[in-house]
Amino acid sequence: MLTVDSLWRARHRIAQIGKKRTGSPRILVVGVCQAGAIAKATRYLLPDAQVDFVSAFTAGRRFAKLADLMAHADGYDHVYSSIYLPRFKDGGTIDTLRTHPKVRLIPTIVFGAYHPDLVHVGIQDSVTLKGLISGPMGHSHSAITLYAYLAGFSQAQALRLFAEPVFERLGYFDLWTDSVAYLRGLGAQAQYDLDTHLTRWARRGCFMHSINHTKLYVVADLARGLLSRSGVAYPDCDLDAFLPDDLGGQGSWPVYPEIAAHYGVPGSALFFKAETRRSGPARTMTRAEFVAAAYANYDKRPREVLISQRVQGWRADPATVDFLREAAGRGSGTIRPAGRAPSLAAGSLAGHAS
Fold it and tell me: In 27-124, which ranges are continuous DSSP H helix?
């Protein structure tokens, strides 16, 4: 989609035709939302460089074959790509692209510990997001709210489930170690050691807007890291002071106060909804408003499309069903041993929208 920003860049590029190059690098960034934010940060770090971005969501239309994209990459000094690519007619994949001598992989940042209730609903098709259900927070949904809806709980009963004993039973306080291990694996996949970054990010509090949308300083660190690994020098600057937080503008899932207290970070019960043509201007929603909006959204859809592996696991476990009925105030009369709900796996949070 054309934006004012892209039009001005095109106008500037046309104005440079015929002018002598200053030696600044030409950089191509390919990928999804995280890659787009990294491209913008790189433009601020290297104001004289040519930094172009190709969205993975439109790359398949622009380049019919991966070979075409690789030929396009030949015109750049450095190419940074996330692992998410569309289906190309020649069957090319990220494993093919990464053989290009100029390509470095961007480490995908997925971290679920701060937002353990966030799930995606539906069946995703590759990186296109086709098949996923959109709700009041876009493709981000609350597992607890979806469970309550499918179980026939009222909205008031659903709200009772947002409580520390329920979070404890569902394993919401136990994801840190698995999330760190999963993030390290994603870094290793891109041959990028994320440990130093992770330590610095965690010291600043919650570094994610959602399980796969990072905060601004994460994007800035990755842009600097990629340039350093490519041997590209850049001046010191405080990107936090002037770089727009594009990923935050796409909405921000709260760190529930109970989760925040567990990790010692600021928390909130307000959901920040992004501005969209369909849902209107950006605004915050209380838990009650969010649950009401989610229920209204689910009412419009066939139950068979309201699919979440995690919620299905809870619904298939009798002890969890009894526990949640009791917690919601709909006592079943047969309370099974407490135990734990089916465990959460950090890998289940992976991908652009898993």
Answer: 33-45, 59-62, 66-73, 94-97
Tokens encoding 28: 């191509």
Cβ pair 265, 206 in contact under 8 A: yes
State the Cα–Cα distance between residues 111 and 182, nearest whole angstrom: 8
b/e burial code for range 46-80 (CB count within 10 A of at least 16 → b): beebbbbbbbbbebbeebeebebbbebbeebebbb
**Distance separating alpha carbons of residues 312 and 334, to the nearest angstrom:** 21
C-alpha to C-alpha distance for 223 and 36, rounded to whole angstroms: 11
Q: Is 351 exposed, middle or buried (0-12, 13-18, 19+ CB in 10 A)?
A: middle
Written as one string, the DSSP assignment of 250-273 is: G-B----HHHHHHHTS---S-EEE
CA atoms of 32 and 106, how far apart (whole Å): 11
CA distance 202 to 112: 13
| Alpha carbon distance 65, 153 (integer Å) | 49
Give the H/E segment covering residue 223: helix 216-229
pLDDT, averaged per 10 consecutive residues of the chain (354 residues), comes to 47 45 82 93 94 91 91 96 87 89 95 97 69 91 98 97 97 97 96 95 95 94 96 90 77 95 96 81 93 97 94 97 95 51 58 38
Q: Per-residue DSSP letters for 333-350?
A: S-PPP---PSPP-GGGG-
Nearest CA to 59 out of 89, 38, 37, 101 is that of 89
Phi first, then psi: give them for residue 142, nearest 5 degrees: -95, 125
For 25-106+214-249, CATH number out of 1.10.30, 3.40.50, 3.30.1450, 3.40.1130 equals 3.40.50
Sign of CA dihedral 187, 128, 133, 319: negative
Which residue type is seen at 204? R
Distance (Å, rounded) from C-alpha 93 to C-alpha 72? 16
Model confidence, pTM:
0.85
